[in-house]
Design brief:
The complex is a heterodimer of chains A (268) and B (298). By secondary structure, chain A is mainly α. Chain A has nine helices and no strands. Classes of the chains: A mainly alpha (268), B mainly alpha (298).
Amino acid sequence: MSCWETVQAYGLRSLGIGERLLPRNDFTLCEQFTLIGSGMIWNVYFGLFALVSGFVLATALAVAKANPNPWLRKPAEWFIFIFRGSPLFIQFFFGYFLFLSLKSVHPFFDAFTSAWLGALVVLFFNTSAYSAEIFYGALHSIPKGDTEAADAYGMSGWPRFKRVIWPTMLRLAWPAYTNEAIFLFHATTLVFFTGFPALQQRGDALYYASYFADKTFNPFVPYPILAMYFIMLTLVIIGVFGLINRRLNKHLPQNQIRKIRLRPNLIR
Amino acid sequence: MGHFVIFACTDPQTLSGLSWLTCYLTTGKHLAFYGAFGTVLLLLAVTAPAAMAFGFGGAMAARSRILPLSWLGRGYIAIVRGVPDIAFFLFFVIALDQGIEYLRHKIKCPDWDEPLRQGSDFIVCQAAKMPLGNSPQWIHEAYGFSLAVLTFAIVFGAFSANVLYGAMRAVPHAQLETAEAYGMSPRQTFWRVLVPQMWVYALPGLGNLWMVLIKATPLLFLLGVEDIVYWARELGGAKTPRFTDFPHPDWRMWYFLALLVFYLCFTRVSEIVLDRIMRRLTRGQATAGGEAQRKALT
């Protein structure tokens, strides 16, 4: 099989399209590149959707945590503490078995026991909690002058939040939020190691990498390939977030823009 | 009392309610489960100093004036960035095992002429197997555990190297110049001035790292150690009366809930302790935190 044929056969294997059986012996480099790359589709899917949906919840949580009203503040604090204080690995396990139990109560929860939805929900809550803490920190460091200026213009309530507080919060939080996004994409590799089944061997990049490592008993090929894909993904994230950062800070003098520093902390 | 419990638990069918639960939670397998919490704590106790040592070495190498050594240190720090950590775990556990066997093979069987990799197999001579095929079970387990510890130490060593490297650069330069003015050699400056002062700068980062390390301990499960995650899955699964005296439906959700609570308590306690240490270390330091403490006192 030529390399192009391999790509056609396995390029979308992680979605269940193409060849049904995974290669079993005489693994070529091309097969490893193709299958691990195919698994990246899942990593991007989980990361992207959790990030976008998490952004909304995180903003709400951060505002709630900064609110003086205890009925809003306490739930937000607990939510953030629970999801930041426990390992994501255990959260995945707990989530999976919780959905499994709920499934017997009501068929509505059927879809939640498969990775595409169940794991996404867990990741969504997790990233919301981490981002909310970042946004909350940013809310606290909004320069007093900004809010005073808003008051002076007679703004209050929603317009004040939308036009002054929220943009400033994002501007301050953006470098840390970029790191959070990078973590999140890395954390997606845990999904298929935590109970969520990879139906018909449709797994993510790490799933295929460890498949190859197990079969060939040679970790020195698949894991560096995986590393290469993830470094590329990380660079793309940094690029995109850098563009948004530029847009957020467009009005500032060019030398005042805070550069994004890459500081991934890994593991949650 | 202990005698009574053992006696009462011999016939679980007759039990109900709380006494059933008491007996259930003290079966041999449950005791192994509780022991696994000890494994987690042991891992933390061994890994934290080992990772610090790796980190210290890495940070020292990174700021070395010898260029290749500096590249090595920076490369070590940089390489763990950008790649998911669990890929590192899965990689190192096999790579270390094969590395050790390869070295032993080179030493013990120098006249072996077959290639080590034959198709999908990694073959070394019998004497180089690690652990030896005929060694007792506990050696196999201890070897697996030490591989896990070493893997953790390598990965977390890179993180702590990053933190310590930053802390070393955060020490005010005037302090080092003063040391030089007193005629200290670079080595003396490093050990007598830089190292004692860097901890206060390093502590927030190290505290963060400790939290991350706690939350990484369940990954032991992926390295093949029988840890709490292993036992929670094992014990929680549905049991029929045919196989056990204590049949129950699928309780894995509750077991993992217990683990979740365990980790929450653990991180909370760590947070409080770290906060105390930080306050103690800030005392009398020329930082914003130290200044705030002084003002609060007067």
